[in-house]
Prior knowledge:
5-stranded parallel beta sheet; globular; alpha/beta; Rossmann fold
Amino acid sequence: MDLHKCLIVDDEELARETLSLLLTGVECEMAKDGNEAVAKFEKSLDDGNRFDLVFLDIVMPELNGHETGKALRKREKDRNIPVGERTKIVMLTALNSPNDVMESMMSSQSSAYLVKPVEPQKLRETLSKIGLKIPK
């Protein structure tokens, strides 16, 4: 399935902008923290214009990636969105720590993870593994 709309959540503006440049042809919205991400995600559900994918940084102030992912999944569950139709979540981390990654993936029911800085080839491979591709 082509990736049409994504939400990039990272407290570092450069990281958000860099990732969006790798996603040419994809409508990318940005959030600087978990609270902003939850608000944008909820609005997309309310508008019926859902995100195909959320990139979610693990380490952020206030609401971290673990907590944000849980909050996004709760919003979907509260709206009775079937598990197979829920938005894909890819966790982002600068820490290449297996424990952090596993905790994040389990707590947010994420689909995959990427280590920052994100490499173009690794991005394409990861998207392919979760059934998405960047449109040409």
